[in-house]
Specification:
With about 550 residues, this protein is α+β, with helices and mostly antiparallel strands. Helix content is about 35%, strand content about 20%.
Length: about 550
């Protein structure tokens, strides 16, 4: 597409204001012969009414100084003081007010030029051309500044998007706001799904929506040509959203951007008439590139998130032990709002003394937190397999953490379920209190706890509790119940109410809890439900 050349000398719409019909005729005839469109007014009141009427205003006004209802100076001041016409150039003209003071007064009160009648046609046309050249250059500069301001605003919005649909919608909204026309923005999500967001409707006769509509495309309508803005669409298929006026490629402007040659492009399609200067081309290209880079960031985030989840899950137990003393069920949900690996974990191991279950959380979200989690979990298994009671396990883990990872802290709740009795041994190092539900549906928290692991402080003896067969033990990390601006005690009360109405099966209870306490995605969630069976008799 070839952009139009300099338009400073193109014809303009000019308002001529003069109460003398002869003077008005001479001025209008000279301007019309030069190709300009002329609107005439015989006094200041009529001129101001024409300027306030709907529709595109004139590009320039030639105003006689001596008018019957007001002076040309007053007309000029009114034009310059009205926001809608403040940028309209005004040329004062007069056959009587020709002194230096008159000309100075006209210029001081807002006129852009001052002509003395009789004025030669060449001088009139040259003055009009010079005034138009300056006014049009100023309008172009103001428009470019406005578009660059919008480009900066929407670039920040593009880089703040969190998913592909939002990115497509913001891209279309940005192009529509910058260029003031219908827009279609197309991209391929990191999962390989083509999306299109458009600001015009795909059904004729319907009102154009105020917000871009996002749809999934059945097939990608652009072939992989050379990257950059010179890519051209394949003849078929057309994007489903284009109105009839833009089916013809000559009537639309298409810009493509790729972060890498092998990537599907980001495509922006707009009305060709909206792109009229090289500056417009640059702004559109910059917007497309910003959207492309934002999509690449989303793609990198998606890949890193998938890798982090794979690594994170590799640190957790592959399966739970089958033990006649209890039925176990767990759920692990990673945080959806961050790529970093978390430190939430769970463990269950059969030992000679009984079944040991535990849920813990390493402070922070990072690869270091995940590595500490792996060390603590494996050390926990080793200490439990050696037959140590829960409080000794915590003390040894605390010593290990102080030795190998000084400064790190961990919350951990360990429970030993004896084989041959209904006794539970609970040791809690700063973790959320475990919740027990009796077979009759009543619930209670075991509130006693010791300090966090990693502080080097002594840990109290384990709390001994008797629990009947059929009782449920619920261990959770804070991602399940803690919410910003919500008191923790209210969250714990809500957890107890939810558990009291949960099914008795561990798997069903886990599902019930996640349905009624949906995580907000800001933190990892580890959930373990233990249903006690009858103790083994001697």
């Amino acid at each position: 597409m070839t952009l139009p050349s300099d338009t400073d000398h193109s014809p303009a719409h000019i308002l001529v204001v003069d109460d003398a019909p002869t003077n008005r005729y001479v001025l209008a005839t000279t301007l019309r012969r030069a190709g300009h469109q002329v609107t005439e007014a015989e006094d200041g009141t009529q001129a101001l009414e024409l300027l306030s009427a709907p529709g595109p205003p004139p590009e320039i006004a030639i105003v006689d100084v001596r008018l019957p209802d007001m002076t040309g100076f007053e007309v000029c001041e009114h034009i310059k003081n009205t926001p809608a016409t403040a940028a309209l150039p005004v040329i004062n003209i007069s056959a009587s007010a020709i002194t230096v003071n008159d000309r100075a007064q006209g210029l001081n009160r807002g006129a852009d030029a001052y002509l003395v009648e009789p004025v030669a046609p060449d001088e009139l046309l040259a003055t009009v051309t010079a005034t138009l050249r300056y006014a049009r250059a100023r309008r172009r500069a103001e428009l470019l500044a406005h578009r660059l301001h919008l480009l900066n605003h929407f670039t920040l919005a593009l880089y703040s998007t969190t998913d592909s649909q939002e990115l497509a919608r913001v891209t279309a909204r940005a192009a529509a706001a910058i260029f003031g026309c219908g827009v279609a923005a197309m991209l391929t999500t990191p999962e390989g799904r083509p999306l299109v967001a458009h600001t015009w409707q795909d059904r004729p006769g319907r009102t154009r929506p105020t917000e871009p509509q996002v749809h999934t495309m059945a097939a990608w309508p652009w072939r992989r040509d050379q990257p950059g803005s010179q890519d051209r669409p394949s003849p078929e298929p057309e994007p489903p959203c284009l109105p009839p006026g833009l089916k013809d490629p000559a009537h639309r402007r298409t810009v493509m951007g790729r972060a890498k040659s092998e990537r599907p492009p980001v495509v922006v399609v707009i009305d060709a008439e909206a792109v009229t200067t090289p500056d417009d081309e640059q702004v559109l290209a910059q917007l497309t590139q910003a959207s492309t880079l934002a999509l690449e960031a989303l793609r990198s985030y998606s890949e890193e998130h998938a890798l982090a989840l794979t690594l994170q899950r590799s640190f957790l137990p592959e399966r739970l032990p089958e033990n006649p003393r209890a039925q176990l069920a767990v759920r692990y949900l990673p945080a959806s709002e961050r790529t970093e690996i978390g430190g939430d974990f769970y463990e269950a191991i059969s030992t000679p003394a009984g079944l040991v279950v535990a849920v813990g959380d390493v402070a922070g979200h990072s690869l270091d937190a995940a590595m500490i989690m792996g060390q603590i979990r494996h050390a926990l298994r080793a200490y439990a397999a050696e037959g140590h009671p829960p409080e000794t396990i915590l003390a040894r883990l605390d010593h290990l953490l102080m030795s190998v990872e000084p400064g790190a802290t961990v919350t951990l709740c360990v429970i030993l379920i004896e084989y041959d009795s209904d006794t539970l041994h609970l040791a809690n190092a700063g973790h959320l209190p475990p919740l027990l539900r009796n077979p009759d549906g009543t619930t209670f928290f075991v509130q006693e706890h010791g300090p966090l692991l990693g502080l080097g402080l002594p840990h109290p003896p384990a709390r001994k509790i008797t629990a009947e067969p059929g009782a449920l033990i619920i261990l959770v990390t804070d991602g399940l119940i803690e919410r910003r601006h919500t008191d923790l005690q209210l969250s714990l009360s809500h957890l107890a109410e939810t558990v009291s109405a949960a099914p008795t099966g561990p798997e069903e209870a886990c599902t019930h809890l996640l349905e009624h306490l949906p995580p907000d995605g800001s933190d990892d969630v580890a959930l373990m439900v233990v249903r006690l069976n009858a103790a083994r008799t001697a």
